[in-house]
Recover the amino acids of this structure.
């Protein structure tokens, strides 16, 4: 707890020092700070695009050899539950693949918005536009609930079959056993 208090004190002192510095340099410094933060958002946007391209390339790689219709059928799960569980795991892996780049972009966007507000400017609504990209929607969590309700041995086996890599959803769904 003492470490947290000391860290809070240091951050507050840094913030006061930064505010004093910015006000002493006037509008020119404010514009330079905003340009710096805007460049950071642009850079993080480019890095996200690169990460998403790499994730798509990884999706197109071969499916795990053990991810077969027979192995999925051997789990003994109803096709509907199996489809939702597989969908959840594939989306989880896709989301995890670019998550670090998404987090970096969101952080940069929030820093820009906060600084714009502090300088009395109307903030760009960048972060609110990122929310849908950074945070999965309700359908993802509904599939997670179905997955979570599966028997533990089936969840473990299914996670082993899917693995941690992003996969092409259509290719995986084609391997589901017929109804």
């Amino acid at each position: 707890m003492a470490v947290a208090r000391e860290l809070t004190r240091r951050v507050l002192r840094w913030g006061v020092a930064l505010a004093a510095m910015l006000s002493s340099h006037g509008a020119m410094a404010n514009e330079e700070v905003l340009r710096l933060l805007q460049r950071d958002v642009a850079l993080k946007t480019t890095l996200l695009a690169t990460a998403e391209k790499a994730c798509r390339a990884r999706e197109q790689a071969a499916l795990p050899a053990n991810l077969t219709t027979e192995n999925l059928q051997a789990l003994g799960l109803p096709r509907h539950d199996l489809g939702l569980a597989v969908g959840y795991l594939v989306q989880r892996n896709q989301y995890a693949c670019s998550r670090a780049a998404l987090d970096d972009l969101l952080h940069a966007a929030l820093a820009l918005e906060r600084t714009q507000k502090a300088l009395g400017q109307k903030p760009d609504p960048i972060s609110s536009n990122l929310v849908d990209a950074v945070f999965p929607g309700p359908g993802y969590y509904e599939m997670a609930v179905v997955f979570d309700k599966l028997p533990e041995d089936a969840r473990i086996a299914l996670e082993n079959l899917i693995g941690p890599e992003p996969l092409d959803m259509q290719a995986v769904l084609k391997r589901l056993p017929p109804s």
The two ends are 56 Å apart (CA to CA).
